[in-house]
């Protein structure tokens, strides 16, 4: 922690000598040119300490943009393997439950939202509840049948919309027609 702060301060002090100060208080552009930072208008009585902290933070952000390795997505979650399909809005998670059950979950990125009126002192108008669609397949080892659950996930509940009995490779004629499954505190 201390060595990281020292390196940051060293980079900031060397860049202060090498780079000219930006004269505009409205915009400062990073050296990469990929982002534009909108600086807040500087008050007339800004302390030198505040100016130095802001300059150091800007330099650290620029350094991280230029030299930090890109973030690698997780490929494991507990006993499950996460498969991200680049360019698609779906993530597949595969794993085993027990010795014989194979579980595959396909989840969309946020595909729906619901506007909920905000309550209380900190309300800024409208809050949003985000939604995910899930398809959960459970297969028994080498058997030829599996269960498929079509689910609707909200932050505080999970609804099982449909349940299908599938034969490997082809869909059943009719879905399960029993009662709806709803898990959560508001259903």
Automatic annotation (TrEMBL):
Signal peptide: none annotated. One of its GO terms (cellular component) is mitochondrial matrix. InterPro entries: MAM33, MAM33_sf. This is Mitochondrial glycoprotein family protein. It comes from Glycine max.
